[in-house]
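Here is the promised in-class demo. Please do not try to memorize the tokens; focus on the logic of going from shape to residues.
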């Protein structure tokens, strides 16, 4: 009797162990499946955001604005890689699922995009606007992404900036009636969340932006906006990528100038000098050292009988 009594509990125990093991495998498989599906959705969303940014490319001196409405709360991680000839714009997407943020290591790369933002930008609705960056020729369209959860208040902005903001009408950039919770951006001041210190040259506005105790230098309005909205690390990396692009474009325009000069139309532009200077740029603090070459090239090209661009 005792022997039989012992065999029954063992059989039940064995069945329970097997059942728990099978249940564990089933739960693990479901978790892995959900995790994989979340990674796929995050990657798909990242690619879709990249595609949605394409219409923001401009063909004139003006900017463009739009908004991205996402199905769930989303974090866009802005990453920049300046390795190689042109470097790469990288974004990672994390979305809220079952009240938790998905984790992904899937990088979505774009070699021809330049996004300036904080990292991450979080929200269900994101505001985007873009401006062309000329230095001295059209280099690229700079894209600025901000969250609908944040409002920016531009105080004492110069007339040119005020007119531009009024025309573009970005929903979260205000010029007056700014709420107390808004991020204050002072032009020429020093007591705001972000302070823009600038001078006005003949062709380019230049200066620096103070934010979180750090200085970011800019040349032109397109880079000024970039410095306002982007983390410094992202700004410096994207600036390096832009300089890499200018370097290659300078050599292409130099070849074009050589070709045109053979037909008796000389431009006399220091394009090789520009290419060499931007190629060695180490940080935004050295931007001003290039501005003289840029202004000279722009001036001579505007006067040239055979303009290169």
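The designed amino acids, position by position:
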């Amino acid at each position: 009797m005792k022997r039989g009594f012992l065999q029954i509990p063992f059989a039940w125990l064995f069945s329970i162990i097997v059942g728990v093991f099978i249940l564990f495998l089933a739960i693990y498989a479901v978790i892995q499946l959900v995790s994989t599906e979340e990674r796929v959705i995050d990657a798909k969303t990242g690619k879709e955001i990249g595609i949605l940014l394409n219409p923001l490319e401009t063909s004139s001196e003006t900017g463009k604005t739009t908004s991205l409405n996402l199905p769930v709360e989303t974090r866009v991680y802005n990453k920049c890689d300046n390795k190689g000839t042109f470097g790469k714009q990288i974004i990672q997407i994390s979305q809220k699922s079952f009240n938790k943020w998905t984790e992904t290591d899937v990088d979505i790369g774009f070699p021809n995009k330049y996004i300036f933002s904080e990292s991450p930008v979080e929200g269900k609705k994101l505001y985007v606007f873009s401006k062309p960056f000329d230095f001295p020729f059209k280099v690229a369209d700079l894209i600025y992404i901000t969250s609908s959860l944040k409002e920016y208040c531009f105080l004492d902005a110069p007339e040119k900036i005020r007119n531009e903001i009024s025309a573009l009408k970005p929903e979260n950039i205000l010029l007056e009636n700014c709420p107390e919770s808004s991020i204050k951006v002072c032009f020429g001041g020093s007591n705001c969340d972000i302070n823009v210190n600038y001078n006005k040259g003949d062709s380019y506005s230049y200066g620096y932006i103070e934010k979180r105790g750090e200085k970011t230098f800019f040349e032109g309005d397109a880079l000024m906006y970039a410095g306002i909205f982007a983390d410094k690390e992202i700004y410096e990396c994207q600036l390096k990528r832009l300089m890499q692009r200018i370097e290659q474009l300078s050599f292409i325009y130099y070849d074009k100038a050589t070709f045109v000069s053979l037909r008796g139309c000389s431009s006399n532009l220091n394009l090789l000098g520009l290419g060499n200077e931007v190629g060695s740029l180490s940080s935004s603090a050295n931007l001003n050292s290039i501005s003289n070459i840029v202004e000279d090239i722009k001036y001579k090209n505007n006067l040239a009988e055979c303009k290169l661009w």
